[in-house]
Amino acid sequence: MPGSTDERRALELLKNHAEFKSTLVSLTMNRDLPILDSHVYAVARKWFELARMHLVDASAVDAGANPRSVYSRAYYAAYNASKAVRYVVRGFVSLRGDDHKKVADLPGNFPDVDSWVSKLPLLYEHRLRADYDNWSDTAAENVLASADCLAIAADFLKAAEQFLLVDYGLKV
To answer: Measured between alpha carbons, how far is 86 from 99 in angstroms, rounded to an integer?
Structure first.
C-alpha cells in the first residue's frame, strides 16, 4: 500500500482502519502508523471534497424554482461530511444504502452533537421526499424550507471541518 494514491483501494484493503491500526500497535509496528493515517486521511478528504461539491451545487440552484434539488444536494453535502468524520473516528463506514441511517451517528465529542443528532435526520427526511415523493401534499410535509436545509448543511460542513482539524490534525 505505501505510495498508493487510490483512495478506493485503501478503503477496500483496510476495511476497518481502527482495527488494523490496533493490530499494528500490538505488533509494535508503530513506524507504519503515519503511513496508515495518510491513507485514512486521503479517503476522508475525498468524501469531504464530495461534500463541498454537493454544497456548491445546492447553492447554485434557484431554491424557489427547484427546491427539490436544494433539499437533495444539501443533504448529500452533510451526509458526505458525516461520512468523512465517522470514517476517521470509528474506522469504517458502510458503503451501502444503510449508511444513510447513520448520518447523525457522530462521536460524542463532536461540537454541539445533540443538535446535529436532530438536524441531520431532518435533512435526510427532506431529501427522501424531494427525490422520491410527488404526492399533492409532499411539499406540506417539509418542516424546513430548502434554504434552511442549505444553511444547516453549510454549518455542518464548517463544524465537521473544524472537528477534524482540532481533534485529528486533519485539514480537509
So the answer is: 11
